[in-house]
Amino acid sequence: MENKSYEKTILWSATFLSLFALAACSNSKSSENQTKKETTSSSKVTSSSKTSNSKNSATHSTSSSASSSQANTNNSEKVQKSSSPLSGYSAEQVEYARVTETLLSYYKYDYQPVSISVTKNGANHQVFPFSGSVVVPQDTVTLSFSSDNTMAGTTIVTYSSNHNGSINFYKDPNHYQDERYLKDSAWVKEESQKLLDSSQTLAIPTSFDEQAAQIISKIEIK
C-alpha cells in the first residue's frame, strides 16, 4: 500500500515538472518573438528617421544652392548695370543718344555732334509745316544734330519707335525754299506723302554706347 502511494507521488511530481517545463518553454518563445518584433519596429523607425533626415538635408541643400545662384545672378546684373557708360541718365536721354550715334554710323558721318536738339511730336504731326501736308498718326521725335551748328552741317530726322529696339525714320529737309510750300497745298500733300513713304526701319544697337556716353550731356530736349 505504501509502495502504491509512493508511486503516485512520483507520478504527480513528474507530471507537474513536465507542465512547468512546457510553460517555461512557451514563455521563452513568446518573449523571444516579442523581442524580435520590438527590434524590427525599432529598426523601421530608425530607417524612417534616417530617410527623413536625408530628404530634409537634400531639400535644404537644393534650396541653399538655388538661393546662392539667384544671389549671384542679381549681383551680376547689378555690376552690369553699374558698369554701363550710360548709367545715371534717363531712358529718354539714352534713347536719343543711341539713335544719334546709330544715325551717324548710318550716314557714315565721321564726326561727333557739337549740339543735339530733340522735339517731341504728338500724334498726327505734320510731315511738312505747311497747309496740305500729310500727318504721321503716331507720336514721333524730331532729332537734330550738327557738326558745326551751321545749316549745311546739320542733320534733321523724324522718327517713331517700334518698341522692339528699332525705329522708323525719314530725313527732314534742312530748309523750304520752294515757293510751292506756301502756295500749292496739293503739291505739299504729294511731296509730304513721298517723304513719309520713304521712311526706313533702323535697328538701334547698344554697340555705340561708349560714343553715346560722350554726347549724351549735349542733348537739349525742347
End-to-end CA span: 144 Å
Quaternary organization: single chain
The radius of gyration computed from the alpha-carbon positions, rounded to a whole number of angstroms, is 47 Å
In DSSP terms (H or I, runs of 4 or more residues), the helix count works out at: 5
Poorly predicted runs: 23-31, 35-52, 75-80
* Proportion of beta-strand residues: 15-25%
Q: Percent helix among the residues?
A: 40-55%
- Series of H and E elements: HHEEEEEEHHEHE
Q: Please state the overall shape, judged from the principal axes of the Cα atoms.
A: globular
- Domain unit count: 2
Relevant terms:
222 residues; alpha+beta; six-stranded mixed β-sheet; two-stranded antiparallel ribbon; 5 helices; 8 strands; 55% helix
Summarize the structure.
The protein is α+β, with helices and mostly antiparallel strands and 222 residues long. Helices cover 55% and strands 18% of the residues.
Report on the structure:
The protein has 222 residues and is α+β, with helices and mostly antiparallel strands. It has 2 domains: 1-83; 91-221. The chain has helices at residues 2-82, 91-106, 180-183, 185-197, 209-215, and strands at 115-121, 125-126, 135-136, 140-146, 154-161, 166-171, 200-203, 219-221. The strands form 2 sheets. It has a 6-stranded mixed beta sheet, covered by helices on one side. Strands 2-3 form a two-stranded antiparallel ribbon. Helix 2 packs across helix 5. 15% of the residues are buried. Residues 23-31, 35-52 and 75-80 have low confidence and may be disordered. This is Lipoprotein. Keywords: Signal. Residues 40-77 have a biased composition (Low complexity).
